[in-house]
Amino acid sequence: MDGEVVGSVLVGRERDLEVVTGMLDTVRERGRAHVITGEPGIGKTALLAAAVAEGERRGLWVLAARGAESEQHLHFAALHDLLRPLLAGVDTLAPGHRDALRSAFGLSVSTVSPELFFVALASLELIADAGARRPLFLVVDDLQWVDAASRDVIGFVARRLESVAVVLLIATRPEPAARVAAAGDPGVTRSVLTALDTRASRALLRVRAGEARDRVLAEAAGNPLALWELPITVQAPAVERPYSDIPPLTARLEQAFAARLPDLGSVPRLLVLLAAVNDGEALSEVIDAATIALGTSVSADEIGEVVDLALLQTDGVVLKFRHPLVRSAVWQSASDPARRAAHRALARALAGDPDRSAWHEAAAASGADEAVARILDQAAERALGRGAPSSAVSLLGRAAELSEEDGPRGRRLLRAAEVAFQLGRPDDVQRFMVRAQGLRLEATERGRLAFLQGAFDDGTPGDAEGVSRLIHSAAQARDDGEPQLAAELLIGASSRCWWGEPGQAVRDELIATADSLPLGGSDPRLLAAWAVGGKLARHRHVVERLNQWAEQQSVDPSDGALLGRAAFVCGEFERTLQFAQPAVDGLRQQGRLGLLAAFLVMRTFAAMYLGRWDLMETSADEARRLASESQQPVWEACAVLAQANLAGLRGFAERSTELLSVTERVAVLTGNEALINGVQASRGLRELGQGNPGGAFRHLRRTSDEDDHAFHPVQRFWVVDYLAEAAVGGGFVDEARTILRRMESVLGDAPGAGIHRAMRFARAVLAEDGDADSAFAEAFQLSRAASPWYRARLDLAYGTWLRRSRRASGSRGPLLSAHGVFEALGATAWAERAARGLRASGLKDQQTAARPATVPLSPLELQIARLAARGLTNREIGQQLFLSHRTVGSSLYRIFPKLAITSRAQLHVVLPPD
Length: 914
Prior knowledge:
Elements: E1 5-6, E2 9-10, H1 14-25, E3 32-37, H2 44-57, E4 61-66, H3 77-83, H4 95-104, H5 116-133, E5 136-141, H6 148-158, E6 166-172, E7 188-192, H7 198-205, H8 213-220, H9 224-234, H10 249-258, H11 266-277, H12 283-294, H13 304-308, E8 312-314, E9 319-321, H14 324-333, H15 336-349, H16 354-364, H17 370-385, H18 389-402, H19 406-423, H20 426-437, H21 443-456, H22 464-479, H23 483-499, H24 504-515, H25 524-533, H26 539-550, H27 557-569, H28 573-590, H29 593-609, H30 613-629, H31 633-649, H32 653-670, H33 673-689, H34 693-700, H35 715-718, H36 720-730, H37 733-747, H38 753-766, H39 769-783, H40 788-804, H41 808-825, H42 828-840, H43 859-869, H44 874-881, H45 885-898, H46 907-910
Parallel strand pairs: 3-6, 3-7, 4-5, 5-6
Antiparallel strand pairs: 1-2, 8-9
Helix pairs in contact: 1-2, 3-6, 4-5, 5-6, 8-9, 9-10, 10-14, 11-12, 11-14, 11-15, 12-15, 15-16, 16-17, 17-18, 18-19, 19-20, 19-21, 20-21, 21-22, 21-23, 22-23, 22-24, 23-24, 23-25, 24-25, 25-26, 25-27, 27-28, 27-29, 28-29, 29-30, 29-31, 30-31, 30-43, 31-32, 31-33, 32-33, 33-34, 34-36, 36-37, ...
C-alpha cells in the first residue's frame, strides 16, 4: 500500500485530488500536464490511483506507465508501455515520424538513428489524435526511474498539451535527477505532497497500529506508507531498537519489508531476488532464471509464498513488487555475490534478447571484462539505431568501466561524451571528459577530446591557453591525416575567440592553422573559422567566397548554417537570411534542434539589423523555446536579448529591462564578453526607444571603449549608426566623431554590407555641415538595397538636418516618408521625432500613433499563419514547428478572427511579407 487509502477513501489528500479533478473537468477545453513530487511513501501512487479511478469514472481513456529502477537502461521502455494501446494508429503518422517511432520501439529495423525529437513528435501526434477521439488521461508514476529516452519524450509532450484533449499526470521523487524540465514551463503545473497532518495520520493509523499507535505516529512523521507498514516492525520484538538509534525513515521502511524475508524458503527467496534485479516484469523470465541458477526445474507455484507475505503480486503472467521499497529492501538484504549470480542467471535466461542480456552480463561482472564491454558496445550501437541515445550513453559508460586498457576505455568514454553532447547534457559530457583526460589516449582520441571541449563550450569565452590547446589539437589532427576533425576543432577555437578575447597572437595562430588545412578556401568550416575567429582581417576573403556559395542551387543544412554564421559575423545580414531559409528547413527536417536554435538566433539578429522586426519576433520566440528545450543556456540568453532589443525599440522599456536581467545574469556568470556587449547595446536601444538619446549614447559608447568590459571588436560596428543617432540627439557629436575615426582606422576594407551601411549612416549623421550633403548622398546610395527601417532612419536624420539648416520645405518629404514607416513598424519614439520635425517644418496636423500598428498575433501564431499562407497543411506545419497538428488547427481557429478573415486563402493578403 503506497499512500493513505482507508477502504475507498483517500485520507488527507482531498485538496491534492481536487487539483487533478479540476484538470479532468476541463480536459475537453484545454490540455495540461501536472507534476507531483514527494518523498518515498508520501502517497504519490495512492493519489494517482485515486485520480485514475476518477478518470475512468468520467469515461476518459486512461493510459499508465511506471518507472522501474532496474529498467532505466531499456530505451523507450516506459514510453512503449504508455503508448502501447495507441500503436494501432502509427500508420497515420508522417513517414519519417512513423519510422522513427517504430524503430524506437523495436517494431522495425533501421540503419539510421532516428532523432529523439522525431520520436517525440510522433508520440505527441499519436496522443493528440487519440485525445480527439476520446479525452485522454496519461499517468506516469516514479518518473525518477523512467528511462532517460522516455523521460525526454514525456517532457516534450508535457510542454505541448494546451490545445489537445489530454491531461498528463506525473509523479516523481524530488531528487534533482528526477526533475522534469517541463515543470517550470507554461501549461505545466506542479505540486508537492507533504506529510499528513495529525488528524489524517490518526485516521489512517486507527485500523493498523494497536498498542504501538503513539510510537508509530511519532516515527512515521506523517508519511502514509510508514503509517501503514511500521506497525509490523515496531510490534515485532526482533526489530525493537532504542529511540536514540532510529535510522532514516526510508531505511526503516526497507527494514519493515526486509523483516518478512527470513520467513521465506530458499527457492521463493531466490525468486524474489531475481525479480528485484530483473529489468522486466514477466514471471516466466524469473522462473527460467531460477531454473538456470539452481540447475533444477522451478515451478511458478513457488511464488505463492511471496504473494502471501504481501511482497509481490502476480496475475500468472506479470510479476510486480507491491511497492518500490520492497524491491529496494530485497536488494539491500542480498550479498554482492548473490546479486551477481542473479544477474548472471538472468543474462542466460534472456539470451534471445541481446540488449537486456548484455546489461545483465555487465551487472554480473565483478571487475574489468573486455568481452562484456564489447557486448555493451554492440548494444549501444543498436540503441543508437533505435533512436535511443540516452540508453547508448549508459551502455557506453558501463562499457568504459569494464574496459581492461586505456585505449578502449578512452574511446568508449569519448563516444559516450559525444552522444551526451548531442543530447545537450553538460554534466554527462563533463563527467566523461574528466575521466578520459587522465588516460593515455592516441593522438586522434586526444583530438576528439579537444573537439568536445571546444564544441560543448560554444558560448564560453576562451582564455589564451585554452584556445591555443584547441589550435594545437587541430594541428595534430591535420598532421595525423584528419583535416575534417581539425576544421571542427578550429570552429570551437574560433567560437571561444568570439565570445571572449584571447589576444591577437592566438588569433593569428588560429588563422595560420586554418590556412594550412588541405580543404580548399571555400570550405564552410574554414569560412566560419576565419570569420568568427579572425576579427576583421579575413572578412573580404570570406565575403567573396560567400558570394560564390550564394550562387549554388542547394546547400547542405549543416554547411548552410556555417555559411550563415560566417555571413552574419561579417555583417552580411542579407546573405545570412539568404542562407537561413534552406538551412532552417533542412535542420527542421533532420530534427537537429540544437543547431537549429543557434542558427535561429543568428537569423533573429540579422533580421534586427535589417529592420525586419516581424521576422525577428518569430525567430527570437522560436529560438528561445528550442534553446531551452535543447539545454543551450547561452543561445537561450541570446534569444532573450533579441526579445529585449525588440521591446526596447518599440518603447516597452519595462519589458526590455525585465528581459535584459535574464541575459545579463548568464553573461556575467559565463564571462561572455560578446553577450555583455549585447546587453550594453540593448540598453542603448531601449533608451532610444524611450526618446532619451543622451542616455542611449552613454550606454552605446561603452560598446566601443576598448578599456570597458562591454567592448567587442566586431559587434561595436553593428550599432555604430545608433550610436551616431544618439550622439546627435543627446549633444555628444564631438565624442562620437572621435569614436568613429577610431573605428574607421581599424575597419580597413572589410566589405560587409551591414557594417558598411552602418558606418556610412554614422558618417552622414556626424558630418560637418559643409560635408553633410555629400555624406548623406553616399548613405542614400547604399540605402537602395537596404530595408525600409534603415532608409526611414536615414530619412529622419536627413530631414532633421535639412530643417536645422533652414531648408524646411525640403525636409518634409523625407520626414513624411520616415513617419509612415515608423508608424507601420510601431517604432513610437522615432515616429514622434519625425512628427515633431514635420510640425516644426510647418505641417501642424501631424500626429503619432499611440501604439504600434502590428499584426495582433503572438510570435508563434504569426509563424503558423505564415506557414499556412505558404500552403502547408496543419500536419506539415506541426512537423516544422514540433507541434501537434491539432495544436496548429486550434491556433488557426484563433488566428482567423484576430485577422478578421475566414479562410487560409486570405492569409497572404493580411500578413506582412515574410
